[in-house]
Automatic annotation (TrEMBL):
GO molecular function, one term: heme binding
Protein name, per record: Putative membrane protein
Record's keyword terms, sorted: Membrane, Transmembrane, Transmembrane helix
Highest taxon of the lineage: Bacteria
PANTHER family named in the record: CYCLOINULO-OLIGOSACCHARIDE FRUCTANOTRANSFERASE-RELATED, F-BOX DOMAIN-CONTAINING PROTEIN
Gene3D superfamilies recorded: Ribonuclease Inhibitor
Domain DUF2231, first and last residues per copy: 42-164
């Protein structure tokens, strides 16, 4: 390195140390701009290079005063340049790490130790570089300094690995093997001994108290039930609607796939375990042996605990490559136990189901022992394919479209032990006839089928060796809580009116709702019927009730009326560079955004401004009479996203002659205000216009209670409603 380059590098090193000190002093007030966040995320990419160089430089410095090396001019020059370059690269890496630490999801003692040992390494290396040029720097200082710097570097690396890969990353396998004491099967609990270890192995590296990605913590029951920033992790009893299973089944290349690409992935057996655990209402206390012997969750849990099925199968295992080929985003094929040839098949997602999904399983028809088709649009004709699975023992057809007549196609299944028909339209005469040929059958679930108690009793008498499961009968058994009702409208945005569609998967459920902001109850609130029509933007609160069940948790839905969409729309001022969304099309495309506005998956839904107003000019070819304008905005004070300081609506018949129709000033959030998605604006005296100008002003100064006080707030809007 020539003298000039060396001088520049030394000046940059000094500046980097000063800059790092500045960041550390004002860390709590630091807000990393979006354009710098990618630089921070390069921290893991770059750090290995300076580590290797710095370790080499420290080793050479340790032996520098030996006679052989001290008299070697090339050695001295090379070492000086190597120490300078490696220290400078370490400084750059630390700056990146400090930027990365300001992102959400990084906190705790491990981060603090990683940060300060990393900074300490840099300062020690810098001290070595400058100190070695002084007269007092001799062998004891060189060796003590290099050893201390190397130790700091190793400790920083250890804490970095803990942040990235979880606690005890290095010694984990040894400790796990030494401490592993398999619980007796009689004492084993599904969550504690099967699901929790799965979370620890595949999920805790990103969802622990030191690194809470997405606000999701997976260390205890309360945190798991709470979920993360994007909502609850699962809907008990409904894996198809559970975020946990949705993220697991996304393609590996999808940015929302979990675990992320590059991390250890869940096996097909582990995915099936999670699905069956959620389907079994995600019980945190249930013992494995409390489940029926033929239950899929029990079989898979026993296998995960190292047990094997007592039953010996007389067929060979299917080809592993074929099994892998049959696994896709909406179908899992997994062995029941280690070294077992028997397979369990689960199908997901109604919209992707076709009869071909069953016919494709023909090559493994001998190995399929458990088949789950719950909530798939399976019809009687599809059961011809199921009838080919000659070793099938357990079949779930809950909430499908099969009838008792179609079940005759299953007469060839001589080994079928368990048949679940909950929520299907089966009738007594056809069902009674179809069960005749299934001599090995032991349990049939018929709850919510419409069969009367008398008809079920007749089935019991006709088939005394079969246990018919009716479900819950109020005071006769322990009740369960209903799932919340669902909004089934294709879009929550409508024109003149909306025929409200609230739905519950269990028959006979009564849905009670309110639209006045009060909580619904089972006595006074309106009962939802298919004739319920809404004519205005409405906030709906709904609960489900049924005799013998606990009422559901409350569900909330927002529907928005949008009568007048402009024929043309112009932006009068530019959008924020990061939040361009779809330009002018963003505001009237009937597509609503959600939180995570900075995520690439959602960024195209939110248009944002910070340094200027959001100014829109809408033109209507034919005059319209308007009396209200609202903007759907994101409010997330913690990240600096606030409602507008004011919304102005101007209108008239000429672009150059507009008058003020109304001004609305939303309330400024106070400390602790939770994130929300709100439609803000208001009504004004009806006015006939052909031009409408809408101006939303970002909050000019973030309140004093906020870490970014005094700065301009970010304003995000995804839809505009004109009525």
């Amino acid at each position: 390195m020539n003298y000039k380059a060396k001088g520049i590098a030394e000046q940059v090193l000094i500046a980097a140390n000063v800059f790092i000190l500045f960041i550390l002093i004002f860390e709590e007030k630091l807000e990393v701009p979006l354009w710098l966040q990618p630089l921070g995320r390069m921290h893991p990419l770059l750090l290995h290079f300076p580590i290797a160089l710095l370790l080499l430089a420290l080793a050479m410095e340790f032996f520098r005063f030996r006679t052989t090396y001290a008299s070697n001019a090339f050695y001295r020059t090379f070492l000086t340049n190597l120490l300078l370059v490696s220290t400078l690269l370490a400084a750059v890496t630390i700056i990146m790490g400090l930027f990365l630490a300001r992102e959400e999801g990084y906190a705790g003692q491990v981060l603090a130790w990683h940060k300060w040992t990393g900074v300490g390494t840099l300062w020690m290396a810098s001290l070595l570089y400058w100190g070695r040029q002084t007269t007092w720097y001799q062998v004891p200082w060189a060796r003590a300094g290099t050893v201390l710097t190397a130790l700091l570097l190793l400790v920083a690396g250890h804490y970095g690995a803990t942040l990235t890969h979880g606690d005890s990353f290095i010694t984990g396998p040894l400790l796990a093997e030494a401490e592993k004491v398999p619980p007796a099967l009689e004492e084993a609990r599904v969550y504690e001994h099967v699901i929790q270890p799965l979370f620890e192995q595949k999920c805790l590296s990103c969802h622990n108290p030191e690194k809470i990605k997405g606000g999701l913590l997976l260390t205890d029951e309360a945190a798991i039930r709470k979920g993360g920033k994007t909502g609850k992790l699962f809907v008990p009893g409904n894996p198809e609607m559970s975020l946990l299973l949705q993220r697991v089944h996304l393609p590996l290349d999808d940015k929302k796939h979990m675990p992320p690409r590059g991390k250890a992935q869940l096996s097909a057996e582990e995915v099936a375990l999670l699905a069956w655990w959620v389907r079994r209402n995600a019980d945190f206390k249930q013992k494995v042996l409390e489940l029926p012997p033929t239950d899929s969750l029990r079989i898979l849990a026993e296998a995960a605990l190292g047990g094997t099925s007592e039953e010996q199968f007389d067929f060979a295992a299917a080809d592993e490559d074929l099994i892998q080929k049959l696994n896709d985003d909406y179908r899992t094929v997994a062995p029941l136990a280690r070294e077992s040839p028997a397979l369990a098949v689960n199908l997901y997602n109604q919209s992707t189901y076709t009869p071909e999904k069953l016919r494709e399983l023909n090559d493994i028809r001998k190995q399929i022992v458990f088949l789950n088709l719950t909530k798939m649009p399976v019809k009687d004709a599809d059961l011809k394919s199921v009838g080919q699975f000659e070793n099938l023992q357990k079949l779930d057809l809950n909430f499908t479209e099969v009838s008792g007549k179609g079940l005759r196609e299953l007469s060839s299944l001589k080994k079928l032990k368990s048949l679940s028909l909950a929520g299907t339209p089966v009738k007594y005469p056809e069902l009674a006839e179809s069960l005749r040929g299934l001599g090995n059958l032991r349990t049939v679930a018929v709850w919510n089928t419409g069969l009367t108690e008398t008809e079920v009793e007749q089935l019991r008498k006709k088939y005394p060796s079969v246990r018919f499961i009716e479900g819950f009968k109020g005071e006769k058994t322990a009740p369960m809580q209903l799932n919340p009702p669902q909004l089934k409208n294709a879009s929550p945005i409508f024109g003149e009116s909306l025929a409200l569609q609230l739905h519950h998967p269990i028959r006979g459920v009564e849905i009670r709702y309110t639209t006045d902001g009060t909580a619904p109850d089972s006595l006074r609130s309106a009962v939802f019927t298919s004739g319920t029509v809404l004519g205005q933007s409405t906030s709906i609160r709904a609960k489900a009730y049924k005799a013998g069940w606990y009422g559901s948790e409350e569900a909330r839905f927002e529907v928005y009326r949008s009568t007048y969409k402009p024929d043309s729309l112009r932006l009068l001022l530019p959008l924020n560079r990061v939040h361009q969304a779809e330009g002018t099309q963003t505001f009237f495309n009937s597509t609503l955004g959600t939180f995570n506005a900075n995520s690439p998956a959602w960024a195209n839904h939110w248009a944002g401004v910070r340094d200027n107003d959001l100014a829109l000019l809408a033109e209507y070819k034919r005059p319209v009479t308007v009396s209200s304008v609202t903007l759907r905005t994101m409010i997330e004070p913690e990240t600096g996203i606030f409602p507008p300081a004011a919304i102005e609506v101007w209108g008239g018949t000429s672009e150059t002659q507009l008058k003020l129709l109304g001004t609305f000033k939303p309330q400024v959030p106070v400390k602790g205000t939770p994130p929300a998605l709100q439609a803000l604006g208001g009504t004004f005296k009806p006015q006939t216009v052909t031009f409408l100008k809408i101006i939303a002003k970002p909050l000019p100064e973030i309140p004093d209670w906020h870490g970014s006080k005094g700065r301009r707030a970010l304003l995000l809007v995804d839809e505009v409603f004109v009525n």
